[in-house]
Amino acid sequence: MTGDDHIARDAFGEPITIRAQADTHYPGNLVVNLAIADIDKNPFQTRHVNDDDALEELADSIKVNGVVQPIMVRPSEEDEGRFVLILGERRLHASKKAGKTHIPAIVRRVPAQQAAEMTIVENLQREDLSPMEQAESFRVLSQEFNLTQQEIATRVGLSRASVANYMRLLKLPITVMELLAQKSINFAQAKELLKLEDNDRIAEAAIFAVKKGMTVEQIESLVLRMDGLLEPIPGMPGVKKKEHTGGARWVDPNVRAAQTDLERMLGVRVRIRDRKGKGKIVIEYSTVDDYDRVVEMLRGKK
């Protein structure tokens, strides 16, 4: 057996030799005991593994019981004899922390796009995935594999509107992204802040909202006040100046509620301009995907 061989065990504990050659076809249900040093990181992983108490507990468990659920890898397309991680980021990190040199793994020969999709679907099933990690996952599928928002939604089992809303988070200024990653603000609050459009104003509003401990509804009101659609409150960030007005313009609560409902339904910025029962509805979009999605929804297509 050479250094490029990998050892698996059968049901009776007897060794099975697997040669790591590029044309090897690995049975999908065979668990191979791979050297951790031969496994490269997952290039599509957007979830961060924290060196926290939970990882320490997993490492302690692995020291005693080993890895109960094998990780999943694929043969490297560049380096013969090496493997690329698909699933099992925490198990791999914990095994290293536990001092293990080998780890049980299922070897799957899958293309890069399928590996990326498998990684993202696994991440979406975890409760601790942050909105920014989720948004970054969708960005990978969009930019690396040229998938539309609808194609991403179909592959990960979400609605197109949900995918669009998450990807909009990537437009936030770095300061607000950090607040979101730290869970100082949540997904719904970030969506409201995006309505301010200007990065400086978004950052100012986010910091003010965190300082005041504002709810989603309070942030919604703050955004309207900063846009000059409601009276400002003491200490709030700068109010956007409106032309041809002497101050903040009063907005009918029913019109404001309808505007909010439309924004939530369409996943884009909507502005209703009403004057004594007459006016216009302006729908703003920033990508072709957003345009196509809104047009389909307005036509009544599912």
Blueprint (SSEs and pairs):
Elements: E1 5-9, E2 15-19, E3 31-35, E4 39-40, H1 53-65, E5 71-75, E6 83-87, H2 89-97, E7 102-107, H3 112-124, H4 131-145, H5 149-156, H6 160-168, H7 174-181, H8 187-193, H9 199-212, H10 216-226, H11 253-266, E8 269-275, E9 278-284, H12 288-298
Parallel strand pairs: 4-6, 5-7
Antiparallel strand pairs: 1-2, 1-3, 3-7, 5-6, 8-9
Helix pairs in contact: 1-2, 3-4, 4-6, 5-6, 8-10
Polypeptide structure, described:
The protein is elongated, with a radius of gyration of 25 Å. The protein has a seven-stranded mixed sheet. It has twelve helices and nine strands. The protein is α+β, with helices and mostly antiparallel strands and 302 residues long. Helix 1 (53-65) crosses helix 2, helix 3 (112-124) packs antiparallel against helix 4 and helix 5 (149-156) crosses helix 6. Mean pLDDT is 81; it is low at 1-24 and 242-248. The longest helix has 15 residues, at 131-145. The protein has helices at 53-65, 89-97, 112-124, 131-145, 149-156, 160-168, 174-181, 187-193, 199-212, 216-226, 253-266, 288-298; strands at residues 5-9, 15-19, 31-35, 39-40, 71-75, 83-87, 102-107, 269-275, 278-284.
Which keywords apply here?
302 residues, 12 helices, 9 strands
